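2024-03-11 09:14:02 DEBUG pipeline.ingest accepted 1 chain
2024-03-11 09:14:02 DEBUG pipeline.ingest length=626
2024-03-11 09:14:03 DEBUG pipeline.predict start
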Amino acid sequence: MLVQSRSSTPFNKRERSVSPIRSFDIPRFKAAAGALLRYPSSTQIPQQIRTLRQINSTTAACNLPEDLLSKIFLHCAHSCLPKQIVDEDAGWSWITVSFVCFRWRTVALGNSDLWTNVDFSHPKWAAISLQRAKMSPLHITATVNDRNVRYIHRSLQLAHRIQDIHLHASIQRIYPLLQILAHPNPALESLIVDVQIPRSYSDVQTYDSPTFPTSGPPLKNLHYMELRSAPFYLLTSRCTFLTQFHLHDLPLSERPTIRYFLFMIEQLKHLEYLTLDRSFPINLDQSDVRSLEKRITLPKLKLISLVGSAPDIANILGCITLPPSTRLVVHICTLADWAVYSPRLSQSIGSHSWGAFHGLPLETLVLSGHGSGPRHLPDTLITHPDFRQSIRIRAFRADCDGRAAAVDVTINPDESIHDDEPFITTLSAIWKALALSQIRTLALQDVDIVTQKTWHTFLRSISALRTLDITGRAPCGLVWAMLLNARSHRTGGERLLVPLLDDVYLHGVDCSSGGYMVSRTAHVNSHCDFDDSRFLDVLNASLVERRNFGLCLRSLSISRCQYVVQSSIDDARRIVSHFISDIRRLCLVKNEEVRQDSTARYHDRWDFEHPDISHFYRLRTLVEMD
């Protein structure tokens, strides 16, 4: 086939103007195909077509090696079909690459693997690709609609040829296909069913109970299954060879009992990856979990990923026995009943290998905070309705080389939570559950909401800490915990925290920032009680106090930080043996943005004249007391 059947413009010039989303002229392609049929021999081909072929033969795109063209076509097909899953009205199909030129068409028609990617965006494409795939295994990827549901149903009946199924459909369109999806072909290796359920849809009975049997011989080739808002009965007793099972957004009416759920999961003896995303049993509470005779065992599980409320996550972890090397990924998206279930969450996590050594101790701990929007409404202490905050805690084992965390927990409460107390309490429960006595490195990224009182408890559990890496917002509570602990140790009150600390690294930190202090009420943090002491000054003071007991810091590095006054740098040079700083940014404060005697800065631009906000220069008071 020729691109230039009606134009004298060279192919290489026209090629650059073709957009990947261009609507192709199908009648023009038919005319070119008809011309080839009318003139089968080169002597019968009109002069214009021979001229165009000669022009195309001189372009590099038309003379690529056959194996390279085949790889390009396969990549084109694989990238096109997922886009049609998202946008069922996409007008471009990968099949049109076979109409570019005669050589491209020859290579495309000769590669049967290319046509196994069945394109259901148009009935004609589906028929063509099914015919040209011959006996090769098929990859069914489609958005189910009124135009193609009949073709998809017919294609799914080709039991001996289907290797992968990936369907995206509304709940009304998926109904005709459920029975055949519950009885997939024995050669099937991967099944993905993504159902879109509108919020207005009644959840009393989302799916009808199956009127067909789900039993049968085991599907030995089926290793991957992903169900999104799909009926749970698609996971049958035939799927015992699954290595990956991912369950997302299971409707309430489809959630099984805890006993049936565990019965089905326990049969997956080969399971390596398990995801439960807002898809927990319907009666999953502490009393039902305790009534179980024993925990189920998943001997080959490498990763378990859980998304949901703290109670659901705590209870499901209490039902499963995991190998010591299993990785845990948790996203707590709601903190309902946090006061009751925080101890339960700590107990459930601590009962697994993450709460003990088992020969694989945790050595690196990373805390990452994130906040969006201002905390308070302008000129008030009322929490802004759009304010959101989350924190992520990752713990790495000694043998992971930084590739993947053994424990990865994100606390991202829902819109109803604006107070810090449930947030910090849940973080403390997770921290308490982990075996952190062998932690060597602590990295903090934008963590500024943990106050001195909580940091004091945290630092006690990481006594082997040697390296402290701080990025972004300054953790003022941490340096205050170290300072007050050293002063208390002077009077024999308590032992020193993190006695092995050698190195501190600061990256992009506002060194003149202040922090929250412990509230005198029941709240964890007080946003009406601030410390006017600058972060770097408090850090220097804590290092001085610790040096009095022989705990000298080996090195302090300050890189790309902001608002660092000259006096703080001079103090750090006298305290630390090896002090490294970014001279270009730090040494001089020519614009007087921060004076030598100025108080702390706050990223929310607090109104210091507000009568309800209390500020106190605690470091200056401690110095004066001495």
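2024-03-11 09:14:41 DEBUG pipeline.report The first strand starts at residue 117 and ends at 119.
2024-03-11 09:14:41 DEBUG pipeline.predict end
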